[in-house]
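Pasting as-is:
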Amino acid sequence: MAFPKVCGIETEYGISIRGSGEFNPILTSSLLINAYAKPAFKRVKWDYEEESPLRDARGFDRGPVETTSEEDSGLVNIILPNGSRYYVDHAHPEYSSPECSNARSVVVWDKAGERILEDSIDAARAIIPNQEQVFIYKNNSDGKGNSYGCHENYLVDRKTPFPQLVKHLIPFFVTRQVFTGAGKVGAENSSDAVDYQLSQRADFFEVEVGLETTFKRPIMNTRDEPHADPERYRRLHVIVGDANMSETSTYLKLGTTALILKMIEDDFITDDFTLREPVRSMRRVSHDPSCRLAIELMEGRALTAVDLQWEYLRLAKKYTKDNDATDVDRDVIELWEQVLEGLETDPMSLARQLDWVAKLQLMEAYRDRDGLAWDDPKLKMIDLQYHDVRRAKGLYYKLLSSGKIDRIVTEQEIAYAVDHPPEDTRAYFRGECLRRFNPRIMAASWDALIFDTGDEPLRKVPTLEPTRGTKAHVQDLLESSPDAGSLIRNLGA
């Protein structure tokens, strides 16, 4: 039976500064995070011991590369009491959500990340010159040929052969753009010219399978860094998605992928949807806002992306009837079907739900009003402003405040998630320990906490099981441990 799909999102945010003669994105990102972080956050170091970004799921470790590791770079890297990681990565501020038990929770803690970035901007105002202003965008391209990622992570059974994941996921990833795309004006990375496309990331994928994330980007990433018991689990690291403002797009992105992974683990999918040219198909789907162009399967059939998503939905509906399904699973299937119906009849009917449609409708309104051609710089600026995380300025948030965008979660849930971890994964134990015992925690990571109780050697508390360390599991332990020393003793009892 498939493992629970514990999941999360890592988002690299675009950053710029206005009013400064020189812009160093690494220093500005560090300034932003340091301005937000309380001293207690900054004193706990990230534990790199179990980091292994060069271990490949195909069964080998790639040799060392001549780059400076994050550990050696001295860049700011903090763990927040909501269980998340907030740090500088590749010259961007990055927020990695805590582990969540389902797609809806991911939406909550992903949105909490936007609030943390917005609060960071406010905090930075006190320490930057008055004439300078920092801007943060939840997007994936700077428009100058550089792309930055939004990576999903899923807990997967180690016993599931990696080639099976590749076989069934590549066609799914290529075609899910029809509801996960964030929308984009123009093309990049030597792609064919296009006025508007579904995805911010599609032009940047060049191979089907590989380890890299910043060049020769693969549709299927092979990084084998489980952050959990390596004998039982792998962490599927998905780099092919856009950073979404729309809660519906994020919800479907995580929810549908989790369902496909469950089906793969249970050997439920017997159909073969292998694409003849996955990389070319990735761009073809993205460059077609009509959602009508077909892509060719290896077996010879030609289907549209929507057609292929209908095939996956058909399987998911049968799977959930034959197996235990969660409330979120059932809700995802219902929404998935409704969105596919809209895409099939009239994609523009989904402006309340999907980023790429909402943005396209906004663009067309400006084009009609001002007579703008698609290559007008104003449209590129509108594209960027859609992703501004400031609720008073971002165009997505303007649409939201005017009642033109559907919600999945509430503002109250998001506000709570800024400072509190999910209660139903190991993130609860990490977050609560950071809140209660911060002065005694020397370092932390996804799968361990290192304590200095003052009267004995450093103690490492492993958290290798993502489904343990929940509130139900550890609340009594925490309540009976007034200090870190008693926690360590109680853990050993």
